[in-house]
Amino acid sequence: MRLPSWLPVVVAAGLLAPGIKSWAAESPAVLDASSSARASREDLLSLLSDADAAKRADAARALKAYVMDDARVETALLGVLDRYPEEDAVKREAIKSLSLPAARFPDADARKALIRIAQDERASTGLRAIAYKALYAALYRGFPDVRQALQEGLKDSNAYPEVRAGAAWALWTDAANDPGSRSALLSVAQDRNEQENLRIEAVKSLPASLFDPQARTAVLSLAQDRDQPQDLRRIAVLCLHFMVQDWAIQGYLKQAAQDEPMAALKDAAAQALDLAMDAQLRLLFHLPALPEPSDPLQNQ
Known about the structure:
mainly alpha
């Protein structure tokens, strides 16, 4: 099955192009007060052991610029994940910086580490959730262990909704390509017994699936169902933006933009119809902004 043209942009750019360096945010906390220059690679590696947790976190974030071309950086970041005690804020940034190395090789140590943390019931819910999210690039590469881990993570009714939402978030790269991932997301999105924020996250990973009549019908039904929570309906309405060329969807959105009694849903329908809203809606649905690739993990 052919993927939408925008889907591989962010992963391919990260794995194949030097543009990955532009994804590393400037980190003022890792700069000496007397220097306006950005900290060097060696400085950043050293700062991973700084006494100040904020500096360690900033260093872990900034090292993303070097992780794909320096094995020492990946090893150092993996060391942060195994460090006890260590602040979750530091481990969180290390996890995010290891997302692309996790997608590089079939036996990547980074991927094994991210799966281990995501499935570790002793880890905090926040760390488990971001570890699942960080697997999105590896999932696009089609690694079976990642697909299995994310599908099982989403379906795990014993896990906290925040953790399951992290798995749902990452599945956006696979929903268009794998019926199992698409089915798992649709099941959660439609289940009234699931927590609302988890259902919303599932819907937000479905834009690339709307070519599938079953997915398209399910999202449209959520948008139209007045018995569903308003926030869930609003996200479903906005999701329809990504299949606005469909006559049935376009007809519903035009009618809702005129006649919907709930102001939030009426506004959402108007936004879904507005092609000028595409870039803003891509951010909401954690899709890569075009034409310049960006890392969806950046703001997580």
